[in-house]
Amino acid sequence: MDTKSNKKSLSNMVYRDLKDKILKNKLLPGDKLIEMEIASKLDVSRTPVREALKKLEKEGLVTSFPRKSYIVSKISVKEAKNLYIVRKSLEPLCVELLAEKGLTEKTKYFEKVNEDLRLAIENDEEELAQNLIIEWNMALVKSLNNEILIEVMTMVNKRL
Q1: What would the pLDDT profile of 57-79 be if each residue is shown by its tens digit?
Q2: Residue 69: left if φ>0, alpha if ψ -120 to 50, beta else—which one?
Q3: CA 116, CA 97: separation in Å to the nearest integer?
């Protein structure tokens, strides 16, 4: 593997690690992200960390400040509420578009995720239920053939 592709894969690894921690609330809004600490914990140089942080900033998950410090972005209650209103309005449209295609392997997949979700809720497995909801929603969006709807739903999900 050449040096450029190795740096890219390290950057992606750091990005996935940080994004996962943010989405699972292991890194909370307002937490300061220090390049050297992250690099040390993940045993990488600062360059892939810096690249990952820039990518997370573009997605709105972190905010940069002068002198290259970053914090996990805060989302206001109002913004979260507005995003959920948009998602709540668009999800039925997504399901309707999927239903128009009829029963397929994709719809069978959704039935399985729904059953897994029902069991997770019955068994008070909150984290599993949250992950299944995200999985269901992302799979729903990816199953559509409407680029604009995919773009909007992806943006909403990323901001949430």
Answers
A1: 988 889 998 776 899 988 777 88
A2: beta
A3: 23
